[in-house]
Amino acid sequence: MGPPQNEGTLFRSDPTTHLNHVKYPVAIPNGIGFSPDNSTLYFVETQLKTIFAYRFEPETGGISHEQEFIKFDEDKHGPGAPDGLAISSDGDLWVAMINGHKVLRIDPKTKDVKGIIEIPTSEQVVCPAFVGEGVVITTGKLAELDPDIAKTSAHAGDVFYVPLPGITGREVYKAKFDAVPEDPGTTSGKLVSASKKGKEKEKEDATLTGTAAPPVAEKPSTPPTTATTATTATTATRVTGEK
Q1: What would the pLDDT profile of 39-82 be if each residue is shown by its tens digit?
Q2: d(CA 94, CA 104)
Q3: Taking phi first (over 0 means left), then psi (-120 to 50 degrees means alpha), and beta for anything else, what does residue 61 get?
Q4: Cβ pair 101, 118 in contact under 8 A
Q5: SS3 45
Q6: Model pTM greater than 0.70?
Q7: Superfamily of domain 8-174+215-238
Q8: Domain residue limits, the chain
Q9: Checking DSSP bridges between strand 159-163 and strand 179-181, what pairing results, if any?
Q10: Got the DSSP string for 56-68?
């Protein structure tokens, strides 16, 4: 397969499902998030170990004024590269570090790490997502990145949940489309109205929206703290996968 090439694209889809090029080229486009006031878009480029920030225009969906928000450095942030991210209601960035065994909580104003969720038994940490007052964390088991991942990470590919009392994700908006592809796997072919599509899948949608959140895992009574920084570290508890 070879190393990733600088040939990817970040697209924006408008309500008619037309795709607009937003950023090209990129090698490993990854997590995307918005500040609580919708003024800033954050975009992760994993291969560059960088999160870029843009001025976001909610009315048009346009972005401008690209800046290097954070360039990850092993001396400061530890091993790994940024992958998926989530934004909490206070504006902090929660960044999964693939090949780093952790999720970092980053202050958007100072850009300092203010918290760490450690996952010592799973190296390829790929994506956090808020569920109520807690965060679900998915991990990978990609042998193409590490042929020995099953041996070195006992819980590679598992999903973890960490309760975070008083902390929730920022407001999430539903996508609005005037039409959606008949086949969701393609942007070509006949389009059907979103309202019709919604009626046809009403029962399925109701089932999905009623899905319960993962069970709350017990938080360690004495979370370890890092000795060299003021950040606190919590070890994630597994909620799925073989015990």
Answers
A1: 999 999 999 999 999 999 988 888 999 999 999 999 999 999 99
A2: 6
A3: left
A4: yes
A5: strand
A6: yes
A7: TolB, C-terminal domain (2.120.10.30)
A8: 8-174+215-238
A9: unpaired
A10: EETTTTEEEEEEE
